[in-house]
Amino acid sequence: AWYADADADGYGDPTTASLACQQPSNTVADDSDCDDDDPAVHPGATEVCDGGLTDEDCDGLVDDDDPDLDPASASTWYADADADGYGDPTTASLACQQPSNAVADGSDCDDADPAVNPDAGDADGDGADSDCDGWVDEDLVAAGDLVIVEVMVAPLGAGVQWVEVFNTSGRDLALDGWEIAVDSGGMSVCVSVDAALAIPAGELALLCASGADVGGAACGYDWADNAWTDFSATCPAAAAISLATADTLSLSVAGTLVDAVAWDATFPVRAGRSMELRAAALDATSNDDAASWCAADTGAAYDTGNAGTPGAGPSCP
């Protein structure tokens, strides 16, 4: 029995059987072709998405019903449980046709809350990343919301460098993705989301060059921690930040410069003594003036004789 192979794909039309001792031209011994006019259709062919029009591999199944579907021809879909038009990136699936409750976008960071998605604003002050960009409530953040109030630039012995900041915003601040930058060496780090520091309204926090406590005060964030997400090209990974005796330290988020202090020899930079902002100058404008700072002369000695008031606020009037 021989079968016509009009499309020359090696598979014959089962409706064209003929008996012969010798193989006739344009025939084959196979009778499994389901479309002998199309050389791309035969058993073993690649099943592709085509709106269910063609059973390319002749197994009786088309498109999404065929387990042999070529993934390259399908689209990726993501579950959209909260129906906000953005899908959960952990639920990717391939299909020719859009499944119910699924979307082509996989950028939702909370698929249980329709108010959280990349198109949402983040000015609600709820302490959540409402627009899925890695920053928290950044649309509320303004210059001066966080103020640099104490800096240990040149510790003695084995002491560590640290910076103390004060939350003046009247609300809690989460430092997810905030950039801490230092002019010397052009170094900067970003506060990682997984190790973010939350600073309550009206309270102080320590940013340290070591995760160890400083003078008995807990270090809120270790700026040598590089387990962070790359939020922008301006915030590259750095092994550590080192403060020089003449330097500029800045804090920013989502392109907003929140505070910066540029100190030089006119500022009270002393080895083994932190530089403190005076109690009457706790704002992001006053701390630009060298006269607003003093060298710490109170506070218990720690770390081989270093003095300062980490976690306790300014000691000078």
Any overview of this molecule?
- The protein has 317 residues and is an all-beta fold.
- The protein has no helices and 17 strands.
- It has a 6-stranded mixed sheet with strand order 13-12-7-6-16-17, with no helix packed on it.
- The protein is rod-shaped.
- The relative contact order is 0.11.
Rough shape? rod-shaped
Uncertain residue ranges: 227-233
Order of helices and strands: EEEEEEEEEEEEEEEEE
Number of strands: 17
Largest sheet: 6 strands, mixed
Strand order of the largest sheet: 13-12-7-6-16-17
Query: What is the helix tally?
Result: 0
Strand content: 15-25%
Task: Determine Rg (CA atoms, Å).
Answer: 33 Å
Layout: helices, strands, pairs:
Layout: E1 3-4, E2 27-28, E3 75-79, E4 93-95, E5 102-103, E6 146-152, E7 162-167, E8 173-174, E9 179-182, E10 187-190, E11 198-199, E12 204-208, E13 221-222, E14 247-253, E15 256-263, E16 275-277, E17 293-295
Which short descriptors sum up this protein?
317 residues; mainly beta; six-stranded mixed β-sheet; four-stranded antiparallel β-sheet; 17 strands
Quick recap:
Helices cover 0% and strands 21% of the residues. It has 317 residues and is an all-beta fold. The strands form five sheets. A six-stranded mixed sheet has the order 13-12-7-6-16-17, with no helix packed on it. The chain has a four-stranded antiparallel sheet with strand order 10-9-14-15, with no helix packed on it. A three-stranded antiparallel sheet has the order 4-3-5, with no helix packed on it.
